[in-house]
TrEMBL record:
Source organism phylogeny: Eukaryota, Metazoa, Chordata, Craniata, Vertebrata
Official protein name in the record: ABC transporter domain-containing protein
GO molecular function, one term: ATP binding
Coiled coil: none
Membrane spanning stretches: 506-530, 551-577, 583-607, 674-697
Pfam families assigned to the protein according to its UniProt record, in alphabetical order: ABC2_membrane_3 (PF12698), ABC_tran (PF00005)
Keywords: ATP-binding, Membrane, Nucleotide-binding, Transmembrane, Transmembrane helix
Stretches with biased composition (Polar residues): 263-283
Gene Ontology cellular-component annotations: ATP-binding cassette (ABC) transporter complex
Primary localization class, coarse: membrane
Domain ABC transmembrane type-2 intervals: 471-700
Amino acid sequence: MREANMTADLEAPLPAGQEDYAIQCRDVCRSYGKLKVLSNLNLAVPQGHIYGLLGPSGCGKTTLLKCIVGTLKISRGQITVLGKPPAFPGHDVPGRKVGYMPQELALYNEFTISDTLTFFGRIHGLTSKETQARMNFLIDFLDLPQKHSLVRNLSGGQRRRVSLGAALLQNPELLILDEPTVGVDPVLRAKIWQHLVEIVKTGKVSVIITTHYIEEARQANVVGLMRNGCLLAEGPPEAVMKQHSATTLERAFLQLCQTSDQISSKRGSSPQGGPLENSQSFESSRDESQPILAVGLAAKDEIPKYTADWKVRARHLLPKWRNIAALMIKTLVRMKRMPFSLCFQFLLPVIQISLICLCVGGDPKGIHVAVVNNETSPSSFSQSLLSFLDNSSVHQVPLSHKDAFEGIYNGEYWGVIGFGKNFTSYLTKRLLYRQVSRDVVDGGSVHVWLDFTSKIQTILYQLLLNKCFYNAFVDHQWSSMSYLTALPIKFEEPIYGSQNTDFTTFVTPGAVLSITFYLAVGLTALSFVLERKEGLLDRCWVAGVSSLETMLAHLFSQLFVISVQIILLLLFILLVFKMPNEGSLVLVIILIVLQGVTGISFGLVISSAIDDEQNANQAALGIFYPNLILSGIIWPVECIPYPLRYLSLALPQTYASEALRCIMYRGWGLSQMMVWRGFIVTLGWNTFFLILATVILKLRT
Ligand SMILES: Nc1ncnc2c1ncn2[C@@H]1O[C@H](COP(=O)(O)OP(=O)(O)OP(=O)(O)O)[C@@H](O)[C@H]1O
């Protein structure tokens, strides 16, 4: 039924002659930068045939196969696979009609053989019964170890056979096999060839296979001998051998190469490029792009232009939940196989937020301060004042004037507190009389010398002394007249927050968002990089998984991880560190989850755009500090100079941190601009990153 629908989707019936060829390549060119790998290559794989693609290492075989399956775009020319160009809307190539075994192993190391085949079975829409039946056959046929063996524990040859099994799984109409027999023993090699010969006999299956063992390709129905990006010859193996009077394919190939070299060198020495004589005349006068002994007329046939109507195109773009589910199950299985890594991922945010709450914003402890007290009486004001200093914060070291200053210059003390010998009487005079001499003012003051190299420490120290003097000492000595020493400024009850709000309270909301964001970036930044490197991304794409599906599957499965992380984070900040939350917990959770999605989507952008782990890591780490500092998480945005502040406001976490603070500490809801602005900016970044990542991934596969 599905097949019938699909056929109906395709616009016009295939032109006469097209259905006879599983693959047609016409004037195909492909370069990597300046390196021209395929030049005007023409090739035709007849339906129901095995096509052996032979050639020396580096001649462009793998490149050609990648162009055929559509993972590489061609620079010029035309390719049709099973009647339509690869990736044509509504076409099943890529999809279940094609089985592709890339040159790389392209297997998930944490999977068992059974997981691997089940994963590809799900993508191809096989029922579990069908997958099981095929799995049993393939394990037996490919002489694989037990199906519960982990891929990472298999030998090189066994892994290649699992990879071949994945290509054969859904009984595809077209098999594209890149060196399937490398590392396989001769008995099994013969068995694989025998199987290929059998499946093509039905006439419904076609195979294109590359191999370095030229002689084994004699079992192919057609061979193409490739060199320097062109086909030197194409035809049945016997015909190729006969034409070159060779007893082996290898010899025939050698002769073709020699002839080709001679022609090239003669062309080089004969500027006119006139026809060569005798035996070489055929070779030299022939069209370079046409192989000797072309299989049929396919190479000359006109390949029509294909079009698809908008409905088919629209349906082609829609993600398939089956594929998304298969990819998500894959990620969850991989996570299950790495329990320690998963636990670490869950615990990391808790460790980070605990460290922030414990180490950032607290009062100083154990500061060594030298005390030079020239008053000796135990009932003096200086002694009383010093007794109110918090001993856990300040460790007082009584010293002489000389030793105290020597100590502070040597960095032993953060400050010196000094009292004159008449401090008690002068301070009393200062408070009781309206007019006193300068000496009385000076002698009735506590003199403090501080090391100002640590600004924050100094501020905290000043606050501590003020608190000690005003709140404790003055209150104790002159409770009814304490206003005499106070500044004529009164701080009323706070509108929001409390008088005791510390720096930790300011930092925590931004830190929670930042931790969620960066852990999500870390989870995803390498996901495509590694999968691309191992050929898994291409393999899944050929199996019919689109870029959008890959992206959504990653997003959903990582959402599971960040959800657990967020629950643990909130439990810690609200219950263990007792951060206030005056607003809606639902809004808090939604905002943090959305920031996690921003992190995931930004990680996906990195991972789609960058090919190698080191660069991807550097990109993720490189934005960490600028973003942390510019987002007003550690220090308020209001302190950032213009025009940097504009940049700061455009970043994903600036308005979001502000919104989270407003929800948690002011109890505001979505009706307040400062709250909804945080949500809108976060959603905007999410959409932008996801679209960008999908586009980059699509352009690169
Ligand atoms: N991603 C790439 N970027 C740049 N050059 C590349 C890339 N992939 C392949 N090449 C170059 O293209 C040429 C053809 O490579 P290709 O892998 O197609 O050869 P091959 O015939 O399959 O070789 P082998 O039999 O050794 O696998 C080689 O010179 C190779 O260095």
